[in-house]
Amino acid sequence: MENKKENFSEWYNEIIDLAKLSDKRYAIKGMNVWLPYGLKIMRLIDNIIRDNVDNKSFQEVSFPVLITRSQLETEFEHIKGFENEIYWVTKGGSEKLDIELALRPTSESAMYTMFPLWIRSHQDLPLKIYQIVSVYRYETKHTRSFIRVREIHFFEAHTAHVDYEDAERQMSEYMDIWSSIAEKLCLPYNIDMRPDWDKFPGAKYTLAFDTLMPSGRSLQIGTIHEYGENFARNYDIKYLDINGDLKYVSQTTFGLSERLLAAVIGIHGDDTGLILPASIAPVQAIIIPIPGKSFKEVLDYSGKILSMLKDINVRAEIDSRENYTPGYKYNDWEMRGVPLRIEIGSREMESSTVTVVSRLNKKRLNISIKEINNIKNMLNEHDKQLTLNAWKMMEENTVFIDDINNIPMNKDVLIKAYWCGSRECSDALEQKKDVTALGTLYNLNDSGKCIVCGNPGRLSMFARSY
Amino acid sequence: MENKKENFSEWYNEIIDLAKLSDKRYAIKGMNVWLPYGLKIMRLIDNIIRDNVDNKSFQEVSFPVLITRSQLETEFEHIKGFENEIYWVTKGGSEKLDIELALRPTSESAMYTMFPLWIRSHQDLPLKIYQIVSVYRYETKHTRSFIRVREIHFFEAHTAHVDYEDAERQMSEYMDIWSSIAEKLCLPYNIDMRPDWDKFPGAKYTLAFDTLMPSGRSLQIGTIHEYGENFARNYDIKYLDINGDLKYVSQTTFGLSERLLAAVIGIHGDDTGLILPASIAPVQAIIIPIPGKSFKEVLDYSGKILSMLKDINVRAEIDSRENYTPGYKYNDWEMRGVPLRIEIGSREMESSTVTVVSRLNKKRLNISIKEINNIKNMLNEHDKQLTLNAWKMMEENTVFIDDINNIPMNKDVLIKAYWCGSRECSDALEQKKDVTALGTLYNLNDSGKCIVCGNPGRLSMFARSY
């Protein structure tokens, strides 16, 4: 296998092939086939997202994939931001369609043409909905599995509120939801307030959750947007308030995508393959029966262990493939990132124990089946350790600089510096080294002199981004 | 509410609106918005399907929605069957695409261009995969929610086998899977071998699962197809057999759609609204606390009942909406088809009981909380009764005729008759009354004289179809 540290891109592509996560040999470049193992992991990620938003009274819906040109054009800034990336349906059968239909690049314009039908009075607010669907972008840039594709597995939450204040409360709630999701996926991140020129088309402001890939390049893995009344005014989304006055709603959105999987693969994996957080591992513990004397009994004993694990809600499986050595199986499951391996031979059977091997630190532990509950703790421990390692890696690759001449030139890192927020100063940094402004760090009131112009600035992040 | 028996179409549309299953006011006719309650029911149906195929070693995948024109045109019969119904993407941004891309009408051509990459030897067979996705048809006919739409929620299983015999075994396995799904949904059906002119484009033969809607019209709710080597020869899907010879695989497919939901709505509902099988009811038991003296204690007691129900895996909720009378709530949940209502007032609280009311027969039962497990049995009983009622309705609306002059002319029914299988005789029946041949009944070797020409025939079904 490729060396992850030295050849990250090659390592990343190789592990996606080896672990059979997705197949990029489909006839359309950038549209990949989700293979069973990759899809299972993504579904477990989806379920974490779903649990967290359901918990906050969001309701799941599903909108059509097609959006008419006139729906899209209702918000001018918005369509302008996407127009070069839209796939257009222009024919039905052999007929030319009267109106061109877009494959959704995102669903504001689909949803907000329905909101006026659903929202009448303040009693209908807040409206909080989400969907998990595919969205489409006619990417002209180089595509990369789970990072930049043309058919994107996408989560989008949309809300409408009585006023800006309530929309701002929603923005805070998103932060809580996000931190809980990121914790489950063991992912480190910064919250960056995107510069005005890089916010979502149509938004008042955009906050992004950015993580760092081992290549030293930044990866945006989530965004939340405050729209204020911007879309409401264009789509005419009004409600009757308590006094009987018609008012525009204020709106927000929250977006996540399959990039969460890209981050999990890239950040946690090692030169042996994937390492999955237990929270999203389709198999959390793989049982390998070791051939030898009384193998039949060993298999029965393995079955018993399997059902004990299922009883305590551990996702476990037995690898009973014939014609494969235990050694082959060890490598195979290590490559697929399973947190714990359980080896069972006649020794274990006779002593009523199992041998547990950690994917992360390779430590072997022989535990009595009376203590099988410990497997749960070991899975939690696995996730904790992954989280620590991941945050540590991000910190080690973040460099604070107070002098533009001290920028590390030889490798990609996250650069932290004071910045006045101007385009000119950001461009100056970009000229010095190929990095762009991710934005100022959210909720940090740490101020200092802009590293470029010396004017008052705030602590900000710069990086080369995916 | 409309009278279901007399105005079925109006009743059907009305209940979909009232129960908020989907919203058809979206900007594109025939592309509807799945609302939370409808989506929840559909997801529960999907899970039943998933459990049943996972159980038979199918693996879930997800293919791109777009298919190139050349992928589609590889199988001539197949494209011919769909060409008038395909939505074509012809532009990306403002550029004209080099090759036109179809929104999948079904996924044979997407999947079978990948199969040659996945199948090398007999060890890779059987290959059994499925996906649950949306498919697209540019319908020119009148659209109808969940029955005929332009964006269809779709399940499709695809298999490849070493030979025809093994593919035929797969066809039998599909029957088992289907009967288990239909049982869960309490749906009656016939298995009809479609006439040659009505089989799936590219198939050797098609077996359809047809049910009867209360309108007297037949509804196809599932199909399985034997492809033999037809697609394999066009897509060049070959494998090395045990002797090292290259052979074509044999293939089959199994398709289901949101029509399952249409059947559930239409067949089980009554003039009060939906009646959902417990197996797919998002809320199986709704708890209504009755206001009165010591209401706070009644609410606490209701909470206790709720957690008891959750402990025995009953999907239960408390309707604690203020400003609504119990009577309003009863009607509301009846309309939404919840199998059991649990009324809790101070009387119930003081006697440590609950009052359970059945949606189906309105019977009231006061049971001790010590017997709360009985709720499970009552839910099973509910599904059994629904199943009996549904099969009875289909039988009562099926008419066997042995004389073409005895066809009931005033209403739509399922017509059972001996038929020689020829197009001419089927057309003769169609001319007499607007019915078409659904096909001969599968696995029935009951033979007799064709009702039209008198030649040897087999027992067959005719109906007006959706």
From TrEMBL, chains A, B:
It catalyses: tRNA(Pro) + L-proline + ATP = L-prolyl-tRNA(Pro) + AMP + diphosphate. This is Proline--tRNA ligase. Consists of three domains: the N-terminal catalytic domain, the anticodon-binding domain and the C-terminal extension. Homodimer. The gene is proS. One of its GO terms (molecular function) is ATP binding. Residues 24-277 form the Aminoacyl-transfer RNA synthetases class-II family profile domain. PANTHER family: BIFUNCTIONAL GLUTAMATE_PROLINE--TRNA LIGASE, PROLYL-TRNA SYNTHETASE. Keywords: Aminoacyl-tRNA synthetase, ATP-binding, Cytoplasm, Ligase, Nucleotide-binding, Protein biosynthesis. Its EC number is 6.1.1.15. GO terms for biological process: prolyl-tRNA aminoacylation. The lineage of its organism: Archaea, Methanobacteriati, Thermoplasmatota, Thermoplasmata, Thermoplasmatales. It is found in: Cytoplasm. Belongs to the class-II aminoacyl-tRNA synthetase family. ProS type 3 subfamily. GO terms for cellular component: aminoacyl-tRNA synthetase multienzyme complex; cytoplasm. It comes from the Archaea.
